[in-house]
Write a structure and sequence with these properties.
The complex is a heterodimer of chains A (about 300) and B (about 150). Chain A has about 300 residues and is of the alpha/beta class. Chain A folds into two domains: about 130 residues, 3-Layer(aba) Sandwich (Rossmann fold), CATH 3.40.50; about 150 residues, Aspartate/ornithine carbamoyltransferase (Rossmann fold, 3-Layer(aba) Sandwich), CATH 3.40.50.1370. Chain A is about 35% helix and about 15% strand. In chain A, strand 6, helix 7 and strand 7 form a beta-alpha-beta unit. In chain A, helix 1 crosses helix 9. Chain A starts with 11 loop residues before the first helix and ends in a 5-residue tail after the last helix. Chain B has about 150 residues and is mostly beta strands. Chain B has two domains: about 80 residues, Aspartate carbamoyltransferase regulatory subunit, N-terminal domain (Alpha-Beta Plaits); about 50 residues, Aspartate carbamoyltransferase regulatory subunit, C-terminal domain (SH3 type barrels), CATH 2.30.30.20. A five-stranded antiparallel beta sheet of chain B has the order 2-3-1-4-5, with helices on one face. A four-stranded antiparallel beta sheet of chain B has the order 6-8-9-10, with no helix packed on it. In chain B, strands 7-11 form a two-stranded antiparallel ribbon. In chain B, strand 9 and strand 10 form a beta hairpin. Chain B is elongated, with a radius of gyration of 17 Å. The chains are: A alpha/beta (about 300), B mainly beta (about 150).
Chain lengths: ~300, ~150
């Protein structure tokens, strides 16, 4: 594995190796030493969690971080091409972690440089490190990835995270409930891909009745910026609000996940229940990103 | 005797069975040189297609690569190489497995539309003529494509 650009490139075996390494690093990060290695963070748009968890991952393994956040004051503002910026960064560092608003940007950069490239989000396309940390979180909270019942809730039409999670879990024979307003249903091409892969799923518009059945509830924010029509957004923005009261019939092992930031879709009274797992999920991002950095830098043992 | 609507050519290439209305798009891709003698026929009657367009290029033999480059808009086209008024070689067009620098990505958010770079599409499915952008990973049908 030279780069991590898209979940489509990742075999089930490689995924399992990364999950195992993340687990080992969570227990004992001292087994990998990335000292004198430099990670270049090329963030063409704002990101708090992804960027900071990458920085934390690199630094906790002894490595260093350089980089940019936003293009203000950089050579990009002077009209430098993406390829040129990346080639220079490659001279300064051992691995590039990049986020870019245009889809396919990370793939393009990986073709331009000799060092490993990690896609930390390219527009609405891929965000493989999020998918991997979600898998790790599900594995850690349930003890297995096999045969789980999961509800994916919220914006299933535009939500990049839920699309790639559905694909990432497909080999493990899950049962999905896709819970969304009618206007934000899972795209038809994804449903047909899942059918082809033999994955069973049901589409729902309400969540109440399925809560006693599920192992994982993956909630996403309905993003205002995705709606061309303000009125349409107002109609659906509060479609699903998860409260502690709503979870009273949940199974003991049920966990609520959310890629964060949340707005109002999970009320704060859920935070103190045993079902809340989204802060652990964010922490897991550090271990998974440590595993990814170590693997791509050739240090995974 | 069969009536010929277009003069036969001595040496060159005939592209037949172009969907009616697409002959100009085919020509735009083939970019004839200023000195090429080109005959263009539109809306000829055809048993298989009802109506079709046709192109004859005098004095130039198209390569298989050039021929395949029109496959996206004229998938049923038949290409004949003519030598001394006779058909020397006949072939069908075939969409290449990998299409480089020929068509633009219809996704406005694709990096290929923002950087000075070549587009690359991979043929996903011959029967539906679905093409996947190597960069943004979106899949399009051949009819959605515009040539560069």
């Amino acid at each position: 594995m030279k780069h991590l650009i898209s979940m489509r490139d990742l075999s089930a075996d490689k995924t399992l190796q990364l999950l195992k390494l993340a687990e080992r690093l969570e227990k004992d990060p001292s087994q990998i030493d990335l000292s004198r290695r430099v990670m270049a963070a090329m963030f063409y748009e704002a990101s708090t969690r992804t960027r900071m968890s990458f920085e934390s991952a690199m630094k906790r393994l002894g490595g260093e971080v350089i980089g940019m956040v936003g293009t203000s004051g950089t050579s990009v503002e002077k009209g430098e091409t993406l390829a040129d910026t990346a080639k220079i960064m490659a001279r300064y560092s051992d691995i590039i972690v990049m986020r870019h608003p245009m889809e396919g940007a990370a793939r393009y950069v990986s073709e331009q440089v000799d060092i490993p490239v990690v896609n930390a989000g390219d527009g609405a396309n891929q965000h493989p490190t999020q998918s991997l940390l979600d898998l790790y979180t599900i594995l850690k909270s349930q003890g297995t990835l096999k045969g789980l019942k999961l509800a994916l809730v919220g914006d299933l039409k535009y939500g990049r995270t839920v699309h790639s999670l559905a694909y990432a879990l497909a080999p493990f024979k899950p049962t999905f409930y896709f819970v969304s307003p009618k206007s934000l249903r899972m795209p038809a091409h994804i449903l047909s891909d899942l059918t082809q892969k033999g994955v069973s799923f049901k589409e729902k518009t309400t969540i109440e009745n399925i809560i006693p059945e599920i192992d994982i509830m993956y909630v996403t924010r309905i993003q205002r910026e995705r709606f061309p029509d303000r009125e349409e957004y107002e109609k659906v923005k509060n479609a699903y609000i998860i409260t502690a009261k709503l979870l009273t019939k949940a199974k003991d092992n049920m966990k609520v996940l959310h890629p964060l930031p949340r707005v109002n879709e999970i009320t704060t009274d859920v935070d103190s229940t045993k079902y809340a797992y989204y802060f652990d999920q964010a922490e897991n991002g550090v271990y998974m990103r440590q595993a990814i950095l170590a693997t791509l830098l050739g240090e995974a043992k | 005797m069969k009536e010929l609507k277009v003069d036969p050519i001595k040496n060159g290439t005939v592209i037949d069975h172009i969907p009616a209305g697409r002959v100009q798009r085919v020509l735009a891709i083939l970019k004839p040189r200023a000195t090429d003698v080109v005959m263009m026929g539109m809306n000829f009657s055809s048993k298989a297609m009802k109506k079709k367009d046709i192109i004859k290029i005098e004095g130039r033999e198209l390569t298989q690569n050039e021929v395949n480059s029109i496959a996206l808009i004229a998938p049923a086209a038949k290409v004949s190489i003519i030598r001394d008024f006779k058909v020397a070689q006949k072939s069908r067009v075939e969409i290449p497995k990998r299409i480089e620098g020929l068509v633009a990505c219809p996704n406005p958010k694709c990096i290929t539309n923002a950087e000075p770079m070549m587009t690359i599409f991979n043929l996903e499915d011959c029967s539906t003529r679905d093409l996947a952008c190597q960069y943004c990973e979106r899949v399009f049908t051949a009819d959605e494509m515009t040539h560069i």
